[in-house]
Input
Amino acid sequence: MAKDKKLVESITSMQEDFAQWYTDVVKKAELIDYASVKGCMVIKPAGYALWENIQHELDRRFKATGVQNVYMPMFIPESLLNKEKDHVEGFAPEVAWVTHGGQNELQERLCVRPTSETLFCDFYKNDIQSYRDLPKVYNQWCSVVRWEKETRPFLRSREFLWQEGHTAHATAQEAQERTEQMLNVYADFCEEVLAIPVIRGQKTEKEKFAGAEATYTIEALMHDGKALQSGTSHNFGDGFAKAFGIQYTDKNNQLQYIYQTSWGLSTRIIGAIIMVHGDDSGLVLPPKIAPVQVMVVPIQQQKPGVLEKAKQICSSLEGRFRVKADDTDKSPGWKFAEQEMRGIPVRIELGPKDLEKGQCVLVRRDTREKYETALDEVVDKLAELLDTVQKDMFARAKAHLDSHISDAADYEAFKEALDKNPGFIRGMWCGDQACEDKIKEETAATSRCMPFEQTRISDVCVCCGRPAKKLVFWGKAY
Output
């Protein structure tokens, strides 16, 4: 047992130090390891399996809306990047440059893609000639590089995995419809699959994507009361098209500029899963996204029939559930702790006494409730239990979100709410960036979004007291 206790290391309590708790979980649950390049991470099998499930489900949802996958080069010539002024200025501080090929200095620097708008524009310029070529509804799964100063696993690293959709349309209305459609795809995915409730809305002018006409976002609330931007969708209008000369001939044989959108979700969403659902024992994974949904744990497996029956149960569940059996020689206590650390939604315990009774015990990871279940009812009970766990996890996250939304009518109330109930603060805004800047400088809170469902909780700006134009969700964020 002494050996077991040493192997199953405790993690820092989230109440004691949330940042250290997060780091402990991603390391001890073996999601990542640190790379030799500072700010980069090795995504280990357990972490990559999460991303594969995310990718699989999102890709399915994308394709249901007509999206096709493509792949663009990872290098962008400097001259190409410079074609859209606002865009290049927005990314300039984070760009990594390639200056040599082998021993030879390049004639032109190459940017390692921080995002691929310019590449798609360069491609569309030649690929789109007629209204018959539209729309183009493309997506690529790739990695991007942004030379961040402060990094944290999944949340902010210098290279990360994501998908980026890039679409081209004949009209502004079609582009706006696609922009909103993809934001709703992200929101539904987060709520239905990841059990993470989100706030949907539009970014302010200050917070929108560089070069975009409008940026829309889904914002999630972490356990510590900080927001996490979890997916964005951008309407570019015809700004990029004019910068890159992307025109098509319409039905009247007139030249027109295309309208574009872009939308993306990255591996930072894994950080959201950890920080929304995790506890002091480690990960708590929603069943729909968990790489292993069920772990069969034989107890006293040296006793006749126990291990054989555990493997038989495991085989009977394969094909319907993602299931494994832990037949290692570790103690049951060690196995339970490891299963909890990895966030496996349901554990099946089976020992000699259970065999005698013709039963097993189902244990929920999220609540640790136990259910004695007849062996011939395991499949149906397990399906029902996993569905219940998924729904309950969303309900708890939604209750946490709802209880951490405060309303503030003036600046003093704003600062008091930020201090006493960390989370989102709903406050009216005059539309002046100076108020955004003041709030960020004095409280570290930023405008998260202007929600689609606009209501008036007062008539004046929460910061300056002048007439208000928009309701804004404010909060500290990762």
Remarks:
- Confidence is low (pLDDT under 50) at residues 1-8.
- DSSP finds 15 helices and 23 strands in the chain.
